[in-house]
Amino acid sequence: MIKKLRTLLNSVPEAEPIVTRIPDGERVYAIGDIHGRADLFETMIAQIDADDAARGMAQTTVILLGDLVDRGPESARVIALARDWGARRRVRLLQGNHEEMFLGGFDDDKVLRHFLRYGGRETLLSYPIAADEYHRATLEELQALMRERVPAADLAFLRAMEDLIRIGDYVFVHAGIRPGLPLDAQVPADLRWIRGEFYDDPRPRDFAVVHGHTITPAPELHPNRIGIDTGAFASGQLTAIGLEGTERWLIVAEGEPA
Questions:
Q1: Superfamily of domain 2-252
Q2: Long-range contacts of the stretch 150-155 (C-beta < 8 A, 24+)
Q3: Model-level pTM greater than 0.90?
Q4: Most CB within 10 Å of its CB: which of 2, 99, 103, 205?
């Protein structure tokens, strides 16, 4: 489903509307948090490929905003689809807080507990780890299973994810940015985890931030930020935004709610 947008700006105190644009000759698609919904991601891949072809020649970049894994049932397949898509076109990936927890859980018990509490169980069961093995394992045994059953290629893929991408007047991050800090001074913890301080900051910028991380019933388009995490793992709606010149449009892959 493709939705045409006028420049939709919610009222944010003190923020002046800015004209944001992608450099001439380029086109960008950004996809919100997938969270193990390989069915929706596969639909989105087909929709973006078709939309891109229909719009004519451009240097096209697809950006996945992070949180490919956890909560939904097919995290391993999401990673496989992303790797395959990246072999066919330019796909850049941002590391989300859930990828951070997944990677950290291989060596840190505390991080592993946190990871499992917030959807990591589903991620591990999407690999060849049986449910009875999972439930019987101690944390130490579970880490051994992870090292044995999660392919090294998947781990290398996740470790290579970026923290921040800027294209023209748009900055792409997983969660947001720390207000008042220049982009080159931002730290990964904020880019992957920040919420309130970023959302509540009314100050105008000379760029718009495109992010996921915080679920909203519909995309949020403000003068200084665009949030496109529509809770795909539970809602059955995965949202992407297309950007070219000053134009914006939404693409929604729809399926069954969890």
A1: Metallo-dependent phosphatases (3.60.21.10)
A2: 153/83, 154/76, 154/79, 155/103, 155/106
A3: yes
A4: 99
